[in-house]
Structures are given as structure tokens and as C-alpha cells.
Design goal:
Number of strands: 27
Number of helices: 29
Shape: elongated
Structural class: alpha+beta
Low-confidence stretches: 124-135
Largest sheet: 10 strands, mixed
Length: 854
């Protein structure tokens, strides 16, 4: 019975449910899009290319492991955790190769070397990869590992000497290079000129995500710079041996070592380490976006349902008056919500699939996710989105309809004509609890010092404050109306009416204020969090660099030979190479850098607060104050940690410095770090010299792509790189902001469209259409002022706490032009969403509307 009545109500009052439908549909689309990202991170396919002809691959373990044993109440609990390392781990040949060969069913074992090898195109001096761009991945290998794909020669012959090179056919076609030509390659050492002896092509089609250069075995070992180690072993089974049996046999053979065995789809993550790491990023990003989206969706949908039920207050009051029980009203509202939620959820889930695809494409385009990680789509995200939409709609209807269900029929009829004077005590208490909770989160945020910990708390705090505003909205609107009374009355009769509406319809106005406050608060937080962090890091870096010039490269980095050449040049006091990586202390990740110890104080000042950097060497490490506080370190302490390639080491703390944001948490000797990273070339070289920029450039003319910059110019380049990372965060939260903007328009339009009778009565009392529209605009501006003021206050509190925790300063970066743009967008949305429904509501004749409503 109630279901039939609910269906009839939805059918007959389509206009009243349009706003709710749109809010639920957008929520379902957002949840589906985030769900596809999360699923791609969990189950995304990484197909192998280089190892296509090797059914089994043996590689080094790419994780740091930690096992903890806890004894509680006579029970022992063992927990094992693993975290990925930042660089490629290598295998020792003498430890592993003989074991693999001894395994039953093994026919061939092929050692593989993969290392940095960027060809330099003579015309531009830039590297060339699969797409001809400087940043495209091009890797070097030994020719004897060409069988792993397999590559075969289509022109020329295999490399024999250390100056021979075989290029893949894709690179040859793009550059026009042929056997006999010469090509400069920038690898782990200084650039070197090679003679092309051959062109090779994969047997099963061109490689999509990489280009390959093949060297002689001796030259490949020199360039790989890991003597006695290999990237992996490719294992080919003997005739009659299945891949499953071969994998089992090899696993038994290497048991007890650091080697791991992969077969089938498991080979892709071994080949493309960046794609394997991107899985973790996508899971984190998809989960954070999905969680924030759900919180925002629930807040928006509850407000929309509350407005929808308020529009039907008279109808529901009449049902109560004719003996409908509270249980029946609850069932009616719940079934209406489920009907609307089911249709909106289905439509939104279908729309979310292409939305998720577009989002994945943008992440790939910005470099946040490599193209090698293929998107995975299944029925699970849409099903979860529909389920979440149904649950959210039902819960929102129950929450929004609590008052009409619980009050007496006579009181319901009275409130159908006049808005209740005070919200329910439960709502007030819940709002105060959330307000206190937001304050607690602000306090917590001010003591969080890592971006990974503070980012989710930052956005959660904004949502919690928005929920508090939604619950305490009527009080907030009445208080704001009292403050705005004078300015509104100065605008004439329209302003007086607007003030009366703010006071008399505070609950309705609060439903509009909430999404405006959420939009402003969330937008300002998203837009100013990264600049706050970046500006603090740039300021510390600028203050800490004493160099006169900075070397930077268009290609993969500055070769060590360039810095060595400068050190022997007259007029150069110091040349400090800087190479960056990430290390693990236990399972915790820390940013790190390696610097040349010689004359370090001449080019670099990290603001040492304890110890000294004098005499800094390979057995030394300097740590930031943040890392020192977290790890309990001081000068003289011993720090045990895992380098980027998984190598465990132990260093003595020589200094503690304050400029951790600008220079990372850990600083070690350059040579130590360079031996344990995939790219040992320096990110930058800090030069202290009285030579001019042109003189230094002439000294480095044998190093293509290396440029001499001023410290400010180098800082601008690094800022550009940070802006690229910021674009990823903006893109990730952009959908949430778009959804919130839609909610603003939706709620405002619903609020205005329900006032047809009110406008008709004003027209009958002598007001013109222009006067009514002017009153609406004044109301919209007042609501905009209240909403954006509250949102700005929330954003300022959150950003200040974030800045205190991350930078130590209560001065977040606020860009006036960006802030004005946020207010402008919010204002345009508010005025458009008010003017268009207002004009539509004024079209019917006032007498007709008044008669119909009687």
C-alpha cells in the first residue's frame, strides 16, 4: 500500500523530487568514478613487454618487511607488514644463478640488465623515446638478453665492442638512424658516442611503453653500475615442462634468498616498477576521494531531502491529521527515497563509468599514473554506488523527516503554515558536538607534520564543520540576519523583505547556506593547501642555497663528470652534486638527498641547530628536526634504515637541521646514495664560483642538455615541477568541488521554486515582477555573504592549522586573485540559480496561483 502511494507521489510531484534526484545521481556518478580508480589500483593489469618470451622471471624483492610479535592474555599474535621501496632492487648473480640452473625443468637462464640510457638527438640535444619526447622511457640492456622479448636483427649485426650499439626499429624509424650512423647516449655515466651496428625489432610487434638500446655485455655491465648484480633472470622451461611446474621448481630452488619468482601477469609489475607503485597511489587516491565524496554526498542529500520534505510539510501534516501513524509516514518517506534513489543511482552509476575513464586518462596525461597500468572496470563500483545511493537516500529521508513524524498532528498543521521557532534539541546537541569535533580536528591538524597524515584530516575537518553549520544553520542565519539588518534595510523595501525572510524562514535559508559554505571552504582548502606547502619549501631552499649558479639538465640529470670538470676549473670554489631518493626507516617513508661532502658549507646551509656538517662523509647522515623528533635522534646517534634499492645501512647522525621542507628529511653523502638509485645523475649541481654564466657554459659544452642557471631560475623550474604535482591533487578533488557546486545550484533552485505562492501574494499586494526579483537578488546576496563568510572562516582555520603543523608558521599562503575567483564563481552560481527559477515562478498569473493553493 505504502509503496504504491510512494510511487504515485513521486509520479505526481516530479518537480519536487527533481532536486533530490539530481543530488543522488551526481553522488552515484562520483562514487562510481572513484570506485573504478580504487579497483584499478587493486586489480589493474600491468602487461609485460620485455619479458614476453620468458614465462618465469626471477627478480629481487621490492619490499621492506617488518614482523611484530605481540603477547596478550596468553595469546601470541604475529603480524607481518610490507612496504614498497623507491628504487629497483638488484640480485647477486653468484647467489641466485646457480640455484636456478639446478632446478628441474629449466632449459635456459638469461640474465637481464635494465638501466638508464637516453639517446641524444643531435638537432635538439634532447632525449628521444617512443614518442620522441624528452621524458619518454628508454632503457639500456645487454644484447644477450634480447631473447627475453625476443628481439631479432632486421638490419646490421650484433654489438661486439664497447662502442657498438643496436637500436630498436621504432627509434630508427622516428630518427632516421641506420647502421653505420653514430648516436650519443646519456646513461649513468657521462654522455658517450656509439656506432650503430644494427637495428632490432620485437618478434611480436613493437613495444608500446618503452624503447630499447642494446650494448655489448661488458659495456652494459659498466653502464648498469652494479657489478656482480642483475635486474632479473628470465627462465625458459625445458620441453615438456609446464610454466606452473617450472615456477614451483624455481621457487623451491631460491627459497631462503631475497629473490621472488613471477609468472604470467605477475611479470608486468616486475618490468614496470612505476606502474606497481602507482597501484598504491591509486588505492590511496581513490579511497580518499571516495570517502570525501561520500561524506559530502550524505551532507548534500540530507539537506536536499530536508528541503523537499519542508516543501511538502502541509501535505504530510494533513496525512497525520487524517490518522496516518508515525510508522506509516516513515515508511512512505523511506519508500519514496528508495524509489528516487534506485533510479538516480542507476543513472548516476552508468554516468560514472565514462567519468572514471576520463579521470584515469587525465591522471595518465599528468604523469600521476603510468600508461602501463591498464584501467580495470567491473560491475562492483556501479553496484556499490547504487547501494550507497539507496542507503544514503533512505537515511537522509529518515533524518530529514524525523520532526514531522514525531510531532502531534495539530502541531504539524500549525507548522505547515509557520516555520518552527527552534530546531529540535537533538539537532542542537549534534551540531554542538560536531562543532567541538571540528575544533579538535583543527588542534590535531596543527601537530601533524607529514603530508600523508595531514591531507585526509584537512578535508575531513572542512566536512565536519560543514555538518555543524547544517545542523546549527537556523541559529547562524538568524544571527547573521541580525547583523545584516541595517545594510539590508538601506536597500529599500526589497531589502526589508529579504531581512524578514532571513529571520522568518531561517531553516529554509540554512539549507542554502550549507552547500555554499561547503563549496567555499572546500575550494579554498583545496586551492591553498599545496601553495602553502610549496611556498614554505621554496623559502627554505632559497635561504639555504649559497651557490652562485645551479646546473640543471634537460635530460635525465647532470653527469658526475660535469661536476668533476668544474672542480678542476680555475675560479670554481665548490661544486656540490645533489641526487634525490626516498628511504625507509622501519616501514616509514622519508625523503632523502645525497650531497657531495667536499666544501659543502660553501654551497649549502640547511640551518643546522645541533651538531655540524663539517667533516661530513659516507658514514654520516644529517636529519631534519622533524625526523629527529619522530625518531628520537641527536648528533652521535646511530640511524638504521633501508636505502632506495632495499640495501640496509647504518649511519651516524652528524647534524640536525631546521630546513627539512626545502632539503628533505635525511641528507647523506652523494656517492652512497648514487650507488643505490636507478638514476645516479645529479638532479642539480650547486656551484660557488666567480666565473660568469657564459664562461661556465663554455666549460660544459661537451655535456649536451646541461644548462647553467641562476638559483632563482632553478627555483622556478622546481616550482613548475611541484605545480604539476599540485594539478593531480586539484584534479582529484575537482569532481568533489563540481558536485558541491551542482548541489549549490540545485538547493537554491529548489528553495526558490517552492515559493510560487509567496511571490503570487506579493504580486497581489502590489509588488511588481521587478521588485520581487530585486528582493530575490538581495536575498541571494545576503545568503551568499553568509555562506561564503562561514566557508572562508572554516578554510582559514583549517589552513592555519595545516600551516602550523607542516611549516611551523601560522601564515598559510592565500592568493587574493584565486580567492576572489572562488567568491565570483559562488556568486554567479547563486545569482543564476536564483534568477532563473525566480523568473519561472513569476510567470503564472498571481490570481491563478493563489486560487490553486487555497
Amino acid at each position: 500500500m505504502m509503496l504504491r502511494y510512494a510511487l504515485q507521489t513521486v509520479r505526481d510531484r516530479k518537480g519536487g523530487f527533481v532536486g533530490t534526484f539530481l543530488a543522488l545521481m551526481c553522488a552515484a556518478a562520483l562514487v562510481t568514478a572513484c570506485g573504478t580508480l580504487l579497483e584499478t589500483g587493486l586489480r589493474g593489469t600491468i602487461k609485460t613487454e620485455r619479458y614476453a618470451a620468458a614465462p618465469v622471471i626471477v627478480s629481487a624483492d621490492q619490499n621492506v618487511h617488518q614482523t611484530t610479535v605481540k603477547h596478550k592474555k596468553g595469546k601470541t599474535k604475529v603480524k607481518h607488514k610490507a612496504k614498497p621501496i623507491a628504487e629497483r632492487a638488484w640480485l647477486r648473480v653468484d647467489d641466485i644463478e646457480s640455484r636456478i640452473k639446478s632446478a628441474p625443468g629449466v632449459a635456459t637462464v638469461v640474465p637481464e640488465l635494465t638501466f638508464l640510457a637516453q639517446p641524444v638527438i643531435p638537432e635538439t640535444g634532447k632525449g628521444a623515446g617512443p614518442d620522441g619526447g624528452a621524458d619518454a622511457p628508454t632503457y639500456g640492456h645487454a644484447w644477450k638478453s634480447a631473447t627475453l622479448t625476443p628481439f631479432h636483427l632486421v638490419d646490421g649485426k650484433a654489438p661486439r665492442s664497447s662502442h657498438d650499439l643496436v637500436i630498436d626499429r621504432g627509434l630508427a624509424d622516428r630518427t632516421g638512424l641506420r647502421p653505420g650512423d653514430r648516436l650519443t647516449v646519456q646513461s649513468t655515466q657521462s654522455p658517450r658516442d656509439y656506432r650503430i651496428t644494427g637495428v632490432a625489432a620485437p618478434q611480436h610487434g613493437a613495444l608500446t611503453h618503452q624503447a630499447s638500446l642494446f650494448f655489448s655485455s661488458e659495456e652494459a655491465e659498466r653502464l648498469a653500475a652494479h657489478p656482480g648484480k642483475v635486474t632479473a633472470f628470465g627462465v625458459v622451461p625445458a620441453k615438456g615442462t609446464s610454466v606452473a611446474d617450472l615456477k614451483t621448481a624455481v621457487e623451491q630452488a631460491v627459497e631462503g634468498t631475497t629473490a621472488q619468482v613471477s609468472a604470467g601477469d605477475e611479470r608486468g609489475p616486475v618490468e614496470f616498477l612505476d606502474a606497481a607503485g602507482a597501484r598504491v597511489k591509486l588505492v590511496s587516491m581513490g579511497g580518499a576521494m571516495g570517502g570525501t565524496s561520500l561524506l559530502v554526498a550524505v551532507l548534500v542529500v540530507v539537506g536536499t531531502f530536508a528541503l523537499s520534505i519542508q516543501q511538502r510539510h502541509r501535505e504530510l501534516a494533513l496525512l497525520r491529521a487524517v490518522a496516518a501513524t508515525p510508522k506509516q509516514i516513515r515508511r512512505l518517506l523511506g519508500r519514496e527515497a528508495l524509489v528516487v534513489g534506485a533510479v538516480a543511482g542507476a543513472v548516476g552509476a552508468l554516468a560514472g563509468l565514462p567519468l572514471g575513464g576520463w579521470l584515469h586518462e587525465r591522471f595518465v596525461a599528468t604523469g600521476a599514473v603510468p600508461a602501463t597500468l591498464e584501467r580495470t572496470v567491473s560491475v562492483f563500483p556501479p553496484l556499490v554506488a547504487v547501494g550507497a545511493t539507496l542507503l544514503g537516500a533512505w537515511a537522509a529521508a529518515r533524518i530529514a523527516g524525523r520532526r514531522i513524524v514525531r510531532i502531534r498532528p495539530a502541531q504539524a498543521l500549525a507548522e505547515a503554515q509557520v516555520e518552527p521557532g527552534r530546531p529540535a534539541w537533538s539537532r542542537i546537541v549534534a551540531g554542538l558536538v560536531l562543532l567541538v569535533g571540528g575544533g579538535v580536528l583543527v588542534a590535531v591538524l596543527s601537530v601533524l607534520h607529514t603530508e600523508a597524515a595531514s591531507t585526509p584530516v584537512t578535508f575531513l575537518t572542512v566536512v565536519v564543520f560543514a555538518c555543524a553549520i547544517a545542523l546549527l544553520g537556523p541559529f547562524v542565519v538568524r544571527a547573521a540576519a541580525a547583523l545584516l539588518r541595517g545594510p539590508l534595510r538601506l536597500t529599500g523595501p526589497g531589502g526589508k523583505l529579504a531581512h524578514a525572510n532571513l529571520r522568518g524562514n531561517a531553516a529554509r535559508m540554512a539549507a542554502v547556506v550549507t552547500p555554499l559554505a561547503l563549496l567555499t571552504g572546500m575550494a579554498c582548502t583545496v586551492l591553498f593547501v599545496q601553495p602553502t606547502l610549496d611556498d614554505a619549501a621554496r623559502a627554505q631552499a632559497r635561504e639555504g642555497i649559497r651557490a652562485d649558479w645551479v646546473l640543471a639538465a634537460q635530460g635525465p640529470g647532470v653527469p658526475a663528470q660535469a661536476a668533476r670538470k668544474l672542480r678542476t676549473t680555475d675560479g670554481v670554489e665548490a661544486a656540490t652534486e645533489v641526487v634525490r631518493t626516498t628511504v625507509r626507516v622501519g616501514l616509514d617513508k622519508y625523503s632523502a638527498q645525497g650531497v657531495t661532502p667536499e666544501d659543502l658549507a660553501r654551497t649549502w646551509d640547511p640551518d643546522v641547530t645541533a651538531g655540524t656538517i663539517e667533516g661530513f662523509g659516507e658514514g654520516s647522515v644529517a636529519v631534519s628536526e622533524l625526523a629527529a623528533d619522530r625518531l628520537g635522534l641527536k648528533p652521535g646517534s646511530t640511524l638504521k634504515f633501508t636505502l632506495g634499492d632495499g640495501t640496509r645501512t647504518e649511519l651516524t647522525v652528524r647534524a640536525v637541521y631546521a630546513r627539512g621542507l626545502g632539503f628533505g628529511d635525511l641528507t647523506m653523502a652523494h656517492d652512497l646514495v648514487a650507488r643505490h638509485v636507478d638514476n645516479p645523475l645529479a638532479t642539480t649541481v650547486l656551484v660557488r664560483s666567480d666565473r660568469t654564466q657564459q664562461q661556465l657554459a663554455a666549460d660544459l659544452d661537451k655535456f649536451p642538455g646541461v644548462h647553467v642557471l641562476t638559483p632563482s631560475a632553478a627555483d622556478d623550474l622546481q616550482a613548475e615541477s611541484r605545480r604539476t604535482n599540485a594539478e593531480v591533487n586539484l584534479l582529484a578533488m575537482g569532481l568533489v568541488l563540481a558536485f558541491t557546486a551542482i548541489a549549490v545550484v540545485n538547493t537554491l533552485a529548489m528553495s526558490v521554486s517552492e515559493r510560487i505562492r509567496e511571490f503570487a501574494m506579493l504580486r497581489l499586494a502590489g509588488a511588481t515582477r521587478r521588485q520581487v526579483l530585486r528582493m530575490l537578488r538581495t536575498e541571494a546576496l545576503a545568503v551568499l555573504f553568509i555562506g561564503t563568510g562561514l566557508g572562508s572562516g572554516v578554510a582559514l582555520a583549517v589552513l592555519t592549522a595545516f600551516s602550523v603543523g607542516m611549516t611551523g608558521s601560522a601564515a598559510p599562503t592565500l592568493v587574493p586573485l584565486v580567492y576572489v575567483s572562488v567568491l565570483t564563481v559562488a556568486g554567479l552560481l547563486a545569482l543564476i540559480a536564483t534568477a532563473l527559477p525566480g523568473r519561472a515562478a513569476l510567470k503564472p498569473l498571481p490570481v491563478t496561483v493563489a486560487t490553486a493553493k487555497e
